Amino acid sequence: MIKTDPRTKVLLMFITVLFSIFVPTGTMTCLWIGLVTLFGILMGRVKKTIRAASVFAALWVFALYVLPMLHGTVHTSLLVWLGLVFKCYPCCMLAGVIIGTTQISEFMAAMAKWNVPRSIVMPLAIMFRYFPTLKEDWGHIRDAMALRGISLSPLCFVRNPGVVIDALYLPILVTASKTADELSASAIARGIENPNRRTSRLDIRIRFIDVLVLIIFCATMAAGMAARMGGYAWI
């Protein structure tokens, strides 16, 4: 398992966004997903990364072999939807790896070394903590309702839509609001309003592995751009 600087992860996210904007959907997208998968596995996020890659592979196979057999509105709707998914999927997949392998303290220390304004760092730091906490609460609510025979399955929703909404959606909305208040109180208790520069004992620095990862992703990005400028048709 490797460990990279949070600044490297931010740069990788920026490169991936540029890739999704400028490189057409095709073989290069599959290669990029492979890079993100390898990166996530090396970072220690094995199961969730492989699961996300498997979902992309299933969608890709569907687009290649099933979608051409469809016609009319269904074909057009799925074609547009899959095009959007293939554009956004690399960014979402890498974001999951970054959020799952980055601690808030590491992120804030890295951004402090970049002299990033606190008005930008604080919302991002809260986001890193908010969504995992909300996901954990959602799992508890879902498990508790499953014991009562209530689930998010389409069949259960069709039979008792009011019960599903009251038992699942309303509690998660209340929990989301409560979690936001708790995170705000925690941030104030940790001195978020202190205008002085924060100190850190974490060893935040760019290492060889960070440079190597950035070179690999940048080289892949350059290959995709060269392929587009050369007029190659990627499948």
Write up this protein.
There is one protein chain. The mean pLDDT is 83. 17% of the residues are buried. The chain has two domains: 133 residues, no CATH class; 86 residues, no CATH class. It is built from nine helices and no strands. With 235 residues, the chain is mainly α. It is flat and about 60 Å long.
Short description:
The protein is mainly α and 235 residues long. The chain has helices at 6-22, 27-42, 46-66, 72-101, 104-113, 118-146, 154-159, 161-189, 208-229.
Which secondary structure elements does this structure contain, and how are they paired or packed?
Elements: H1 6-22, H2 27-42, H3 46-66, H4 72-101, H5 104-113, H6 118-146, H7 154-159, H8 161-189, H9 208-229
Helix pairs in contact: 1-4, 1-9, 2-3, 2-4, 2-9, 3-4, 5-6, 6-8
Helix content: over 70%
Low-confidence stretches: none
Order of helices and strands: HHHHHHHHH
Tell me how many strands there are.
0
Shape: flat
Number of discrete domains: 2
Overall residue-averaged pLDDT value: 83
Rg estimate, integer Å: 21 Å
Q: Which structural class best describes the helix and strand composition?
A: mainly alpha
Largest sheet: none
Name the beta content range: under 5%
Q: How many H/I helices?
A: 9
Cα separation of the termini: 33 Å
